[in-house]
Amino acid sequence: MTKTIKSDYVEKFRNFLPILLACLILQFGLPAATQAASQDKTDTYRLLELFGDVFERVRNDYVEKISDEELIEAAIEGMLGHLDPHSNFLNKKKFKEMQVHTTGEFGGLGIEVTMDRDSGLVKVVSPIDDTPAFRAGLMAGDLISHLDGKPVRGLSLSQAVEKMRGRVNTDLKVTIRRAAQKPFDVILTRARIRIQSVRSRTEGKVGYVRITSFNEQSTSGLKKALKKLKTEIGDEIKGYVLDLRNNPGGLLNQAVSVADVFLDQGEIVSTRGRHEESAQRFQSTKGDQTGGLPLVVLINGGSASASEIVAGALQDHRRAIVLGTGSFGKGSVQTIIPLGQSGAIKMTTQRYYTPSGRSIQAKGIDPDIHVQQAKVEVIDLPKRRSEASLRNSLKNENDPRKNEGLKEKEDKKSENSVKVQKGDKTEKNSSAKNKSVQDYQLARALDLLRGLSLFQQTKAGATN
Fold first, then answer.
1. 371 pLDDT exceeds 50?
2. Which ranges constitute the DSSP H helices of 197-238?
3. Which of 52, 140, 295, 436 could form a disulfide with 302 if both were Cys (CB 3.0 to 4.6 A apart)?
4. Annotation says 316 is catalytic
5. 295 and 231 co-located in one domain
6. pLDDT tens, residue by residue, 249-268
């Protein structure tokens, strides 16, 4: 049954239109008196009247009572959500949560997500280190199809994120779709997520720095890490690895200041919006805080937004070699516009460009050296005889060992090496260093840095 109701609210809305027009004229001035402009205004008022009609019908006739606040917020969410996957409305609660997130602590599962337009499912941009999602093995590119058995298709991104959040220590069943695999369920226990934005360690004579996200702690954490590594390794340091894999991004100003740490001059990134006067260029300041040592940047499909700004700037200035796989491709900037006590809107206002003028939107950063993450396995080769195994072979006068039994010692050493590479937990020679080699991309980055260091030393020796 359909009812047609004409209410006083609609009449009041129509009567309000002239007042709204007067306010707009006072604010922006009279437009050019053209027939097209007049027609545009008429169309706008007609559409506003349509919105008023629909609002009143839903308000009065919907099967369940819905508050005016819920209806208005839903309308705004729909308007912004229709623009792109990153624009949305933040009510007071969500706005507060976003402010907490950028300071480095929030509650949830520990995944950065976006909406996949093709499938209508929630797509994992990247899991955050040492969170429930990370420990459960979620990967960049995974699609979330169900939450606690209920489909996410049809939900907005903000609605899906809200369902993933909840009280600490409560469980959520997440159904994952992964390429070339059947859908599977993962039980995640919600936790208080505390992000340590920067982590570092020594890898022999190489300094390793990982940035998990760009929040207010990132630049200060990076500077402390570099100072610590320099102290631990000393003057023999060969270079640095900057790991931005699975870094979903964050604050633009932190991306700029992090890139500035490694650059001595030049542009870091530029942003351009709808209006020419809104364009901005961010320049580096003098002083490379690593002294110009070789640098390798690791990226993958989970590296997005701010991490792509850093990788792109260092790549364009030839300050670093970018290694790994193609990045996510988020080349837009969102501006948070507060709305007083009502919350805020997060709206895409600009695109960003690398120093060479590249836009990476929907394309990503292409690494200088493509290296897929891989698992290294030992291949059993047939045993070969060596010179030392031959009868009456000459001794090496510089080798204190005797030839007798040398073959057996080498075979035993080879067996131990195989056990270590195969990950035998009972092998005494297994160590943290061997475990780090399991990260194939990092291993290649370390090899590259050592090679660059050796090349520079050789070149310096030849010059002298």
1. yes
2. 218-233
3. 140
4. yes
5. yes
6. 999 999 999 999 999 999 99
- Counted domains in the chain: 4
Residue 289: CATH number of its domain:
3.90.226.10
Which of the following is catalytic: 316, 366, 368, 439? Answer: 316
pLDDT of residue 32: 52
The DSSP string of 320-354 is: SEEEES------EEEEEEE-GGG-EEEEEEEEEE-
**Residue 36 scores a pLDDT above 80:** no
120 and 146 belong to one structural domain: yes
Compute the distance between CA of residue 419 and CA of residue 178 in angstroms, rounded to an integer.
32
- C-alpha atoms less than 13 angstroms from C-alpha of 53 in its C-beta half-sphere: 9
DSSP string, 415-446: HHHHHHHTT-TT-TT--HHHHHHT-HHHHHHH
Identify the pLDDT of residue 13. 46
CA distance 83 to 213: 25
Kindly indicate the confidence band of residue 431, based on its pLDDT and cuts at 50, 70 and 90.
very low
Q: Which of 94, 123, 238, 330 is catalytic?
A: 330
Is the domain of 344 the same as that of 216?
yes
Structural domain including 423 reads 387-463
List phi, psi (to 5°) of 111. -130, 140
Q: 156, 284, 305, 332: which one is catalytic?
A: 305
Least confident span in 2-6, 42-46, 265-269? 2-6
Do the Cβ atoms of 215 and 100 come closer than 8 Å? Answer: no
CB distance 146 to 114 below 8 Å: no
Q: Which two tokens stand for residue 264?
A: 């001595």
